[in-house]
Write a structure and sequence with these properties.
The complex is a heterodimer of chains A (268) and B (247). Chain A is of the alpha/beta class and 268 residues long. Chain A is built from 10 helices and 9 strands. The chains are: A alpha/beta (268), B mainly alpha (247).
């Protein structure tokens, strides 16, 4: 098996709304793959189906050779994920968040201790390991989430809009680390973004998704050639049009606002 | 087993770290004890009800347990809103283990809260009739805690956000408390006594009152049986609702 992810005619409907419309693609083992699309294109919905959080309406998925609908646990063991929104427990310390993850993934005590130290050192949080996460900045939280997502040595690493709200320094640091990991450990990386330069610089192959449909896929050069444009940004606009996407103000957005109000916007 | 333990431990750590929550939840029962205990005590005695503090103390303990337990369960909404729930839902563990760990954690917290309030009642002059009953008191406290944490979790599984919070407070938690006979004897209240029979807290209050003050309406055996059955049913419904959560 050479594909880390295989998706065949996948659709997801919420009532009458088709969030993902009959998409097919595959991600090779050890590849860095980007899902590029405007807001509300169906990126996060696809990731949720790949990671067992949502059931597909129709279509087939294989992650690491397993079907997320049938072999949930095998799929869950084989991937790590950094969600678009924070998913840490603020009232626990960095170390406790890591420990919690390790126990859920069934790591032995010894293995857990070594790996937590190793990973927290890599993401530069070892000297803050005993601080409560609520005292962390947005960048520190992201780094901790990356470390946590890698604790059980996943074969596939999902990053959903990982650089959202990060400053350029943190962003570049983050990608350097992920690329390094991909090279050294051969971990397959699947990320979503709407930053052109990010997709261009980091991804080996890109899938452009819009209105729940895949409108193009290939390397950056292939996309440029296909659309007869000079930059990825032009290619993207030629594929998805200039119309501005209005997203409905959902519960999620409400929650993000609430969080900003409660915890102070500067930290995120 | 480890999954259940780590989820339980997480709840306890969160609880022990929020001092304001512990102190805040002592205020209300204390107010009830002082205002009602000393305020209505003389009238209660004149009416031939005996020592009101002996009657009231188990009711106030039950109230503290009810509030803490339901809110520990409802905290699930918080986890959902602040994202932490996703971390547990993508992990290779069964959802039943997750909900069990959570519920046991919440129930332990509510029991601790019950013990703290019990200590408070001793300070305002409550005297349990037989100290040998204390282990049984703990069991009753834990069972009541378990029931209402499971109820809170079940409710939280179907709610998306905290908007429904006021509704739950006014139409569930407060009625459960006021209609349970925690503040007044149910005998001779007619219609109210019938309503109270459908309030699960009534049996928690009665069991606590039997074991602490030797005042019983239904008797411990009936109380414990009903509480036990209700707890199992609520846990079952709760884990079903929880397993259907999609994020």
């Amino acid at each position: 098996m050479t594909n880390a992810i295989e998706v065949k005619s996948l659709s997801k409907k919420f009532g009458d709304f088709v969030a993902v419309n009959n998409i097919s693609f595959e991600v090779k083992k050890g590849e860095i793959f980007a899902f590029l699309g405007p807001n509300g294109a169906g990126k996060t919905t696809t990731i949720k189906m790949l990671t067992t959080l949502l059931h597909p309406t129709t279509g087939k998925i294989f992650v690491n050779g397993y079907n997320p609908v049938i072999n949930q646990n095998q799929v869950r063991k084989s991937f790590g994920i950094v969600f678009q929104d924070p998913s840490l427990d603020d009232e626990l310390t960095a170390y406790e968040n890591m420990e919690f993850h390790g126990v859920l993934y069934g790591l032995s005590k010894n293995l857990m201790t070594t790996r937590i130290e190793e990973l927290l050192r890599i993401v530069d949080l070892w000297d803050r390991k005993d601080s409560l996460v609520k005292t962390f900045s947005g960048g520190m939280r992201r780094r901790l989430e990356i470390a946590r997502g890698l604790l059980h040595h996943p074969k596939v690493f999902f990053l959903d809009e990982p650089s959202l709200g990060l400053d350029p320094q943190t962003r570049s640091h983050l990608w350097e680390y992920v690329k390094n990991l991909n090279k050294k450990e051969g971990i397959t990386v699947f990320f979503t973004t709407h930053y052109m330069e990010e997709a261009e610089k980091i991804a080996e192959r890109i899938c452009v998704i819009d209105h729940g449909k895949i409108v193009a896929k290939g390397t950056v050069n292939e996309l440029k050639k296909q659309t007869k444009t000079k930059t990825l940004e032009e290619a993207f606009l030629s594929l998805t049009g200039h119309e501005i996407r209005e997203e409905e103000f959902t519960n999620q957005d409400h929650m993000r606002m609430m969080r900003r109000m409660w915890r102070g916007g500067g930290k995120h | 087993m480890n999954t259940i333990y780590i989820l339980w431990l997480r709840q306890l750590k969160r609880y022990s770290r929020s001092k304001s929550r512990i102190i805040g939840s002592i205020g209300q029962p204390l107010l009830f004890l002082v205002a009602l205990g000393f305020g209505l005590g003389p009238i209660f005695k004149k009416a031939g009800g005996g020592n009101y503090i002996d009657f009231l103390a188990p009711g106030v303990i039950a109230q503290g347990i009810l509030f803490t337990a339901i809110f520990s369960g409802i905290e699930l909404i918080w986890d959902r809103q602040f994202g932490f729930l996703k971390e547990t839902l993508v992990a290779p563990v069964s959802r039943f283990e997750i909900i069990l760990g959570r519920t046991l954690g919440g129930a332990t917290i509510a029991t601790i809260q019950g013990i703290i309030i019990f200590a408070l009642t001793l300070l305002v002059g409550f005297k349990p009739y037989n100290l040998l009953m204390l282990p049984l008191v703990l069991i009753v406290m834990f069972l009541t805690s378990l029931l209402f944490t499971a109820l809170g979790t079940a409710i939280a599984s179907v709610l998306d956000d905290m908007q429904g919070f006021q509704l739950i407070m006014n139409f569930l938690v407060l009625p459960l408390f006021f209609l349970s006979g925690s503040l007044f004897p149910l005998q001779g209240t007619g219609f109210l006594a019938i309503v109270a029979r459908f309030d699960p807290l009534t049996y928690g209050v009665d069991a606590l009152r039997s074991s602490l003050s030797n005042i019983a309406q239904f008797g411990l055996l009936t109380d414990l049986t009903i509480l036990g059955i209700l707890t199992l049913v609520t846990l079952y419904i709760g884990s079903f609702l929880f397993s259907r959560i999609e994020i």
